[in-house]
Structure formats: structure tokens, C-alpha cells
Amino acid sequence: QVQLVESGGGLVQAGGSLRLSCAASGSFFSIDSMGWYRQAPGKQRELVAGIGSSGTTNYADSVKGRFTISRDNAKNTVYLQMNSLKPEDTAVYYCSLGIRSTRTGVTRVYWGKGMQVTVSS
Length: 121
Prior knowledge:
By secondary structure, the protein is mainly β. The chain is 0% helix and 57% strand. The protein is built from no helices and 11 strands. Strands 2, 4, 5, 6, 9, 10 and 11 form a 7-stranded mixed β-sheet that branches. A 4-stranded antiparallel β-sheet has the order 1-3-8-7, with no helix packed on it. A hairpin with a 6-residue loop joins β9 and β10 (107-111). The protein is elongated and about 50 Å long. The model has no long low-confidence stretch (mean pLDDT 97).
């Protein structure tokens, strides 16, 4: 059984920083893609940043230059360093991992439970 544990969310003033983490545990073959999504009240969930197994990254235009996604394969963990935070970054943040099964070889997407990030002005 695969489990994702998120940490690092909270309340921060505009201009501040937070670092989100998402660690996967359980039995699996590998983690392919890793990403962070967010959902603000009344809005659809959107991709914030993604990182592939080779380390290739992509970002939403709204966070480019401020957020950095990284991964530690030895720890099965993905991070999101968020700097220069703005009130419009306020949302529930979710990690999403594409995890390949040892038994079937099929990759399935797993989601974290979500963390509130609130940026005050």
C-alpha cells in the first residue's frame, strides 16, 4: 500500500517563503513523475510545478522565478520551495506522484491529502 505524507504548509506573510514536502512510503518499483497542484476557493485545481524522472521541470507561468520543485529519489520525496509568496498563492496544495507497481509494472497516480497554504497581505 502506497502512502503519501505531506508537510510544510501554513500561514506566511506576503514576501515570505515556505517549503513543502511530500514523501512516499510503501512497496513500489519506482516513482516516475512528481508534481504539485493547488486549488484556491472557487477555482479549479491547477498544476503548479512538475518534475520528471530525469529531473526535467515545468512550472505554471504564475510561479516561474519564485517556486522551485526538486526531488530526492533516495528518500522518495518531492519538494516545493516557494519564495516571494503572494496572497494569490493562497490555496490547498496537493502533491501528485506517478508510482510504478512492482507487481504489474503499471504506473498509477497517487495524490496527497492536501495542505493549506495561506499568504497574508
